[in-house]
Design brief:
The protein is of the alpha+beta class. 33% of the residues lie in helices and 36% in strands.
Length: 143
């Protein structure tokens, strides 16, 4: 299985800009720039996309494990926060923090914690990232 995306850039680093496009069309010439990456300008950036990929992959891994056990979640909500900071003078992704809130009828807190921990360690995006990955996964009342 292969997935593709493309980046296009015009101009210098600080005043130039570019766009990101995915083969699926989920991103279609989505703008990105230095100001969006290192400042607060609206738009996306590579780190935000990595956070989205990590949140999505982890959530699907939790759901897959629950499904294998005959459990059907009513809601799984994950936020991933990726940290970009200077390490030895180079911008480096250093950590990803996953925060999940889940409503899953008939699962014990202990079993849910074990499933979430396994998904954190073994979802494909976690395995691809050379980062410190932390997790805060909590069950909420099923709706």
């Amino acid at each position: 299985m292969k997935r593709t995306a493309a980046a296009l850039w015009f101009g210098d680093l600080k005043t130039g800009d570019g766009s990101l496009t995915t083969h699926s069309g989920a991103l279609e010439q989505t703008p990105y720039s230095f100001a969006q990456r290192f400042g607060e300008s609206p738009g996306t950036n590579p780190e935000e996309l990595i956070a989205a990929a990590h949140a999505g992959c982890f959530t699907m891994a939790v759901c897959a494990a629950l499904t294998r056990e005959g459990l059907v979640p009513t809601r799984l909500s994950t936020q991933a926060t990726v940290i970009l900071e200077q390490v030895d003078g180079a911008w480096t992704l250093t950590a990803s923090h996953l925060e999940m809130r889940a409503a899953v009828p008939q699962v014990t807190a202990e079993r849910f914690a074990a499933i979430a921990a396994d998904a954190k360690a073994n979802c494909p995006v976690s395995r691809a990232l050379n980062l410190k990955i932390t997790l805060d996964a909590q069950l909420e009342a099923a709706r």
